[in-house]
Amino acid sequence: MRKTTVLAFLMVAVFGVMMLVPPEVVRAETIELKFAQPFSPKHTMQKKVFEPWAEKLSKMTNGKVKVTFFPGGALGKTPDHYGLAEKGIADIVYILHDYTPGRFPMTSVFELPFMVTSAQKTSVAMWKIYEQFPKFQKEYGKVKLLALFCHDPGGFNTVKTPIKTIEDFKGMKFRTANPHVTQALKLFDAVPVNMPVTDVYTALERGVVDGTVLPWEGNFIFKLAELLKYGTEADFYTMTMMVVMNKRKYDSLPDDVKKAIDETTGLLMSEEAGRVYDEVRPVMKKLCEKKGMEAIQMAPGQIPRLKEMCMPLRAEWVKKMEKRGLPGKAVLDAAVKLTSE
Fold first, then answer.
1. Inter-CA distances, 130 with 150, 267, 279, 317, Å
2. The CATH fold of domain 154-238+284-340
3. What are the residue ranges of helices labelled H in the chain?
4. What are phi and psi of 254, to 5 degrees?
5. At what angle do helices 119-132 and 328-340 cross, to 10 degrees?
6. At a CB cut-off of 8 Å and minimum separation 6, what does 133 contact?
7. DSSP states of 273-328 as a string?
8. What is the domain partition of the chain in residue ranges?
């Protein structure tokens, strides 16, 4: 009897304590969102955009949501990252579009040469065009799109010969960035060499390539500034990027969490990512100069000539899109207008 009485007393006591705790606290469970990205945990986007966003999301949901980061390809190889979100291996993923070749033809309009002068302005344009064109939206139909953005304009970086005139390109071997850059380099009489950016250091060191197209940040982050001597600023190109979420995971979330995600991503995150890239540009330039690089400006009249040489690439892009039943001309015109405002 004694044991029975004690057990009954304990059960009553536990029940009484539970009654004092608000029901929402009893029921509340932390929602973990796995965020994967293939780059360094010190990457600019990781430290200045994604981690602050995760903290804000946690505060907005009163600690209900916890974002756990898996940088450095912890959940899969770089080219597989989009698939990680699509399949639900990761809940959220940050990845460059070029790691999924052919899947985002409309988005590639922003990777045409001389389309970008500001990462922030171009990132805003990317999101607005996504909202405007249903066929643009269709490219992301299998995921929940959280942000679209790009890095600050990249130029021509070389080891021995600075690029000052169009003639300087002749025969120079450049690591290329995307198919549009490859086509442009051929027009300049340079020799494009396809390789992952992670292989560029060794290629420069061994003379496999004479230079690379990259923004200042890329030169510094990948330690190429240790080998490169010249950086010609030309606002030549950019690489587009995205943050996507597994659609099933998003749909499974409580309405208040969905609302918090919606209010902190989209145009807001896209613009913030672009702004941060623009903000770090002069900082990265100075860091590269401290490593021994010299900033070079092309001779007067040379950049307009380069731009004119690249104009046929825009017409070719439109033709390819229209052939696939996509609104190429309308998207290009909108992109040019928005990035020029």
1. 14, 10, 24, 18
2. D-Maltodextrin-Binding Protein; domain 2 (3.40.190)
3. 2-20, 23-27, 44-45, 51-60, 81-87, 119-132, 134-138, 179-187, 200-206, 216-221, 247-252, 255-264, 267-290, 302-323, 328-340
4. -60, 155
5. 140
6. 106, 327, 330, 331, 334
7. HHHHHHHHHHHHHHHHHHTT-EEEEPPTTHHHHHHHHHHHHHHHHHHHHHHTT--H
8. 30-150+239-280, 154-238+284-340
User: b/e map of 125-142 (b: 16 or more CB within 10 Å)?
Assistant: bbbbbbeebebbeebbee
Instruction: Map tokens 């007067």 to a residue.
Output: 300
Write down the residue that tokens 């009489």 correspond to.
Answer: 189
- In three-state form (DSSP H/G/I as H, E/B as E, the rest C), the secondary structure along 230-261 is EEEEEEEECCEEEEEEEHHHHHHCCHHHHHHH
Which residues are within 8 A (CB) of 6 and not within 5 positions of it... i.e. 6 or more apart? none
Cα distance between residue 181 and residue 110, in whole Å: 12
Dist. CA 254–CA 256, nearest whole Å: 6
Are the C-beta atoms of residues 304 and 293 closer than 8 Å to each other?
no
Query: What's the rounded Cα separation, in Å, for the pair 188 and 243?
Result: 34
- How far apart are alpha carbons 275 and 60 in whole angstroms? 23
Per-residue pLDDT of the chain (341 residues; tens, 9 = 90+): 444 544 444 444 444 444 444 444 434 589 999 999 998 898 999 999 999 999 999 999 999 999 999 999 999 998 899 999 999 999 999 999 999 989 999 999 999 999 999 999 999 999 999 999 999 999 999 999 999 999 999 999 999 999 999 999 999 999 998 999 999 999 999 999 998 888 999 999 999 999 999 999 999 989 999 999 999 999 999 999 999 999 999 999 999 999 999 999 999 999 999 999 999 999 999 999 999 999 999 999 999 999 999 999 999 999 999 999 999 999 999 999 999 87
Q: Do domains 30-150+239-280 and 154-238+284-340 have the same CATH topology?
A: yes
Where does 30-150+239-280 sit in CATH, by number?
Answer: 3.40.190.170
* Tokens 């731009």 -> residue: 307
